Structure formats: C-alpha cells, structure tokens
Amino acid sequence: MATNVTLQFKVHEIHNVGQPVPHNVFNEFDQHGLLLNLERLHGEGNFDYRQRLVDVNVRKANSTYFGLVYGITRELGLDLFTAIKIQALKTNSVFKATNPVVVFRGPFVDLYSDYNTGIIDRTIDRWEYTSAYTLAELVTEINKSSYFEAVLGDTINPYTRSMTILNSSSRASFSESLPLSTQIHLKHKDILSGSMEFSSRIVFITEQTTLNNVKNDGDYYINYKDGIIHAFQTPQPGIRVTYDRIINPFTAVASPVIIQDIHSNFRDKLFIQNKDEFGTAFDGKPTILGTEIINELYSVYPEYWGE
Length: 307
Description:
Among the domains are: 28-75, no CATH class; 174-243, no CATH class. Helix content is 18%, strand content 27%. It has six helices and 18 strands. The strands form six sheets. It has a four-stranded antiparallel β-sheet, with helices on one face. It has a four-stranded mixed β-sheet with strand order 10-14-13-12, with no helix packed on it. Strands 7-1-16 form a three-stranded antiparallel β-sheet, with helices on one face. Strand 2 (90-91) and strand 3 form a beta hairpin. Mean pLDDT is 85; it is low at 301-307.
C-alpha cells in the first residue's frame, strides 16, 4: 500500500548575493563585426547589432561632415531620427512661393521664397538661445513664415537641441530616360523651375511659356507643378533629362551627435590636408582641434540620449 508524504518548510529570509550580468555569446554576427570593424556594444542583442552592421555600408563613415556624423552615431549605438516635418504651403494646389526651398546650413535655416533668384523669406539662427535653440522653438520660428509650416516629429522631445538636425535641403536632384512620346510624365512633381537639362538639344531647344506656343520643331513646354513635358517633336531613343525637385513635405533628419561647420573650412580645421601627385587635397591625420572634438564626441553615453 502506497503512502503519500507531504513535506513543508518555511523560508524566513532570502539573501540576494548578486545581480545577473548579461553576457553575449560570440556568434556569426560578431564574426561580421570583426570584418566590418564594428564591435558589439555591451548587452546589445542580435537584432540591434545586425541593424548597425547593415548600416555600415549604407551610411558610410569617413572624414567628411556626414561621414563623421554617421560613423560616430553608429559607433555609439545611437539612431538617426525625424526631428521636424516642414510643409511648403499651397493655394489651390499651387505653391504660395515661387520656388520654396528649405536649406539647413551649419547653424542657419534658410527659408527660400524663390530659390532660383536667391530670395530668402526668413533666415533662422539655431545657435540663438532666445529664439530657435530647441526643436520646439525652431518650429515656432518656421511657422512665422508666410510660405512654410512645421510640426515636430512623432514622439520627439520638444526640448531637444535644434542643432541635432543635419545639414540638408528640400531640393533634390533626379535623372531619368525619356519615353518616345511628345507628352512626357516625369516620375516626380513640383519641379524646380529652370533646373531641367536635356542630353539632346535637337528636340528641346526653346522652352515656351504656354502650351499653345508649342508650334515648331524644338519647342517644348514644362508643367513644373505636375511634372509634365509637352514637346513638338518625339525625342530620339536614349535621351535623358536631369532636374531638381522640391521635396514637399520635407522631413528633417537629426542625430544626437552634433557636428557643424566651424566658421569655414570645416575639413581643414579637423584634418591635416595633404596633396596627391596631381595637387588634389585629401584628409590626413586629425589636427589637435579635430582630435579634441572626436574625443569629446566619443565621450557621449547612449544612456544620456532620450532621458
């Protein structure tokens, strides 16, 4: 006959001897990291590490402005983020300004009402403590323009410094082949007027101001708003067109790592400039100032950002 025996005991106190410490087991991702010279961060999981490894060949690190930003941001395990979104205002689907372009250059933000003629509606200084030092203040300053409006990116801390936004522009260049047709629909709309160039001047000789004036060989008309070219003749095979487009809305990308032009000659101040046999300058070793800046940037801890 089987007998069931029940044992009971009480634990009056539990002593915690220590906290578990995460430890990564070397795997294939770490092998790729050795090849790409990108070590795994302490406690970094495979998914996040993989994202950084892929980014090595997407946003390449070098001694240029973007190369430093991309490289240091990735090395520190930080991420680029959407800081603000800027919309060029329209009335009845037509821009209120002639050629509205936003340009982030160093500490300044230029809001062009006509980019082609260099007419600037507003220039905003992001180093100015009393106006546009934070992202929220920058949005307020942009919204004072008659031609643009801005909003913060999703889940963005409004008190983040506005200098985190990278040098960038809402003007972008494109190139494409033309079809064998007299009515050509480009891949993009909102073309920057005056920016279009053709690889052949046989069909595209005289740009007309209205569609009704396209009457002779070489005449053509461009609808910049809708991205449509009307030509009198059919283009020959292989003709290409290049043009600049106004990106609207424009997304301003930022990095927690701030590197900006030091007055002028940014690269000259950060790196010793050497010359090759043809007299072309290239970056050498970091200068004393460059070393100090790079060391200061490497002292940033990932835990600080986002708090």
